[in-house]
Design brief:
Oligomer: single chain
Largest sheet: 7 strands, parallel
CATH class of the largest domain: Alpha Beta
Number of helices: 13
Mean pLDDT: 94
Order of helices and strands: EHEHEEHEHEEHHHHHEEHHEEHEEH
Low-confidence stretches: 4-11
Distance between the termini: 58 Å
Structural class: alpha/beta
CATH topology of the largest domain: inorganic pyrophosphatase (n-terminal core)
């Protein structure tokens, strides 16, 4: 199906790149597509998954042919969103035949287009129109036909909430959609504790509660559902936690050996950086996660005094000012030396600027 084109900052593209979003124009594009695929970044979190779920139930309500196909499997703690088995893990032989006939792919919370990994190949092979809905920064030169970015949004789920308020033309947002949107908002605001929490976040919470969503059960599913292997892994990292710069900077490594000893999986490391950031006196927390012999995942968390996404950008990553990350294709020892050195230099520079 031929979708409408828009002339914005980039010719023949819709590009609301941290500018006022015309959700009616966005809706014209989505409503004009009969076959839609929803996806999010690898190792998905509550915001990406909740945003997908929120949009999925709206689209199904209007009888669109829609599927959620993600590069990574659904983490166990979000299984409550999957009552109707709506989340699929990408399999080339199983999905490519369906994807090639899709009118529109909507990507949520991706941060970087490449974070949907192998799915980019099928999208580009068949020149499928892509819409990006995100609260992470993106350059004006990008691979999205429709680029919808709001850096002020606490979560991508908040943007989905704004979209549905327009798209449903006064019809209430369904309980199933609200469950996903609440999940997105709660997780990306640290349960409404982080500085990005605003009036809209609480508006979403009120609407969710008013529609009978048991928000305490969502919290329990996500945050009171740790595996024994995760607890073991936490014990290992706490015994080798490093404090520098008078305790302002805390960092730790998670090695493949630690993962094997704890019998842990990748999802077990989620939330560790936030936990270390919560230590009194710590301004910046850093996790260096050895994914294999030549590849490390880096996570930064800041309490708000130190901006960390500039460090992540120097490493080829990105993210928010106070929550960012990167992937480094280097061995653990070399990656650790580089990241710790860069982080200390950045913290020093920023602290000196504050003094001046």
């Amino acid at each position: 199906m031929e979708l409408p084109s828009y002339h914005g900052i980039i010719k023949n593209k819709m590009n609301f790149n941290n500018t006022r979003i015309n959700w009616r124009s966005v809706h014209d594009v989505v409503d004009g597509a009969d076959k839609i695929m929803l996806t999010t970044h690898e190792n998905p979190d509550g915001d990406g998954l909740g945003s997908e779920s929120g949009m999925y139930h709206h689209l199904i309500d209007r009888t669109a042919e829609v599927r959620i196909i993600n590069y990574s499997p659904l983490p166990n703690e979000f299984e409550y969103l999957n009552r109707d088995n709506i989340f699929e893990e990408y399999n080339k032989s199983e999905h490519d035949q369906w994807i090639k006939n899709v009118d529109l792919v909507i990507i949520f919370d991706v941060g970087d287009y490449e974070r949907i990994r192998e799915i980019t190949s099928i999208i580009e092979k068949y020149n499928i129109a892509v819409m990006n809905i995100d609260h992470h920064p993106h350059p004006n030169k990008n691979k999205f036909k429709y680029n919808i970015v709001d850096l002020s949004a606490a979560a991508t789920g908040c943007m989905v909430f704004d979209y549905l308020k327009v798209a449903r033309s006064g019809k209430p947002i369904s309980k199933d959609s609200l469950e996903g949107i609440y999940t997105a908002t709660m997780t990306d605001t640290g349960c409404f504790r982080f500085s990005n929490t605003n009036n809209k976040c609480h508006e979403i919470a009120i609407e969710a509660l008013s529609n009978g969503i048991e928000t305490h059960k969502i919290y329990q599913n996500i945050y009171e559902n740790s595996t024994k292997s995760r607890m073991k892994l936490m014990g290992y990292l706490l015994t080798d936690l490093n404090f520098e710069m008078g305790g302002k900077f805390a960092w730790f490594m998670i090695t493949q050996e630690m993962m094997k000893k704890a019998n842990a999986v990748k999802s077990d490391v989620e939330g560790f950086s936030d936990m270390i950031r919560s230590i009194r006196g710590v301004e910046v927390a850093l996790m260096i996660f050895q994914q294999d012999d030549t590849n490390c995942r880096i996570n930064f968390r800041s309490k708000g005094e130190i901006i960390v996404n500039d460090i992540a950008k120097k490493l080829g990553g990105g993210g928010h000012a106070f929550a960012a990350g990167a992937i480094i294709n280097e061995a653990l020892e070399k990656a650790t030396e580089k990241v710790v050195s860069l982080t200390k230099a950045s913290i020093n520079n920023q602290l000196n600027q504050h003094i001046i």
